[in-house]
Amino acid sequence: MGLIQVNPHGDGFVDTSTGERFVPVGVNYSAMLDMVHFKGKVRRFAGLFGVDRETEPDPLAEAAKYMGKLAELGLNVIRVWTEPHDFFPLGPRLDAEAADRFDRFLEICRQHGIYVSVGMHLTSVPTGWPFHNFQPPHQQWLLDQLYLLGRRWGKHEQIFSWTIVGEGQLPWYTKWLAEQWPHWLQFWYNDDLEALRQAWGALPGVHIQSFADAPIPPRNIGACLGIDRVTYGRLEELPDDPWAGSTWRYDWRLFLEHIGARRVHQEVNILRQAGAIQMITVGANSWTFPNLPASQMTMGYNPYFLTDSLDYFCEHNYPMPQCLPGGLGNPLDSDENLQRWLIANEIMGRIYTSLGKPVVLEEWGWYGPGRAAFAGVDMGWRSAEDQLRYCEAMMETTQHVFQGWMYWMHRDMPHDGDLTQVCGLFRADGTIKPWGKRYGEWAHRLRLNPPVVAKAKGVVDLDMKRMWTDDRFHETWWHNMIRDYPTRGPLDFRYVFERKPATDWPNDIRHLDIQTGQQDYWAR
After folding, report:
1. pLDDT score of 291
2. Residue 78: helix, strand or coil by DSSP?
3. Does residue 470 register a pLDDT over 80?
4. How many whole angstroms separate alpha carbon 315 and alpha carbon 395?
5. Which residues contact 31 (CB under 8 A, 6 or more apart)?
6. Fewer Cβ close by (within 10 Å): the C or N end of the chain?
7. What are phi and psi of 46, to 5 degrees?
8. Cα(15)–Cα(5) distance, rounded to whole angstroms?
9. Position 520 pLDDT exceeds 90
């Protein structure tokens, strides 16, 4: 087994020791995922080396048991999380015992031919900070931890990749963001306050005398309402949004993307400085965009701005939001619902593959046999055959879009709080489900016939200003694209942004009034 890298064509992966195509087909692995009443609150406990009522007392024995099962199926990769309370209990020092245990874990994976994608923390409880906090000083502490991980394992061939941000989403407002906003505007408008005033137009009750006076725009109406309110069939019921399509709101969204991209660039750079040679990625919580107004679930982490730093992209796609009141519908309730969901997944995948890098479906899945809930809504009982039917349909359609798959999860976690309870390849007692067997067959099939992204029939522009700021436009676009895609697709997609104000200066100035002997104001 050698180091895995993106192949020279940028459309898949290669084992650098053999030059052979490598197709990642695997699962997300955590020894435990449990909702626990702890210190007066119900909290989610996750642990790569955790122990609960279903695991072996020795977490390494638990890992060896399941790595053997996964290897028997023909799977070749797992995704795990390094929890700070295990690896950095004192903060700035990598714990020697945890490091030794992780070395032994990697050796178990090597013995079974399983690569490991390493993510940072899955749960916020042990970190002492809000989940995915991007602000100082937490970001600096996170960089320090990444540096130590990179120093220790940055050349380990068993590591498939580093997932530095999993399902990142910036908040609309924090005090720290508000402090950065005037500085970003000064940069964006080239220190030209009048240009900002003209771009934004009149704001009620606001007189902008300096960049520090610039207010933060209201959030999209749709993002402030329940998911059942922002659907194509109910758009006429949405309250009026006076700032839909506004440059004011667009600038704020673009500012958030700059903040998120800077975080990603910093974390990639620190891993590379530490000597890490493996691939680096970010897991995007797309889930897929319909009914998630203006792509709020990836706010701050649009893949367009991460392209230069990352080796490949990841998506996390689940149909749970579609099962809520007003959603597109549970995909297993009808063939129509299932087809709409499959088409939406293909569109979302193509939006990412259009950026020219491989895309892995890093989290996905469905449940059965049993019941599952999401956001307080019972999604109903599903059988093992239902799970098989959904997942089989996903594999059939996504093999022409994605270049890798990591199913959620390796086994049922009966004490967790969502579909994770009954979505595993294996039951909690370790017996395999019908879908687990079929997934193994898919691994063998894809190894013999690696996935190929279907050639596009055309290119569709994504008007990001309207997609970000106007919920009606966003939802109507998705509805029409899902409706028309079966006859128009496959399609590629091109992000279209309004550029930085000074960057639209022409390079060809032969048609302009060229002055001789004049000086620019800065030279006077």
Report:
1. 44
2. strand
3. yes
4. 14
5. 47, 48, 49, 50, 51, 52, 55, 59, 62, 63
6. C
7. -130, 145
8. 7
9. no
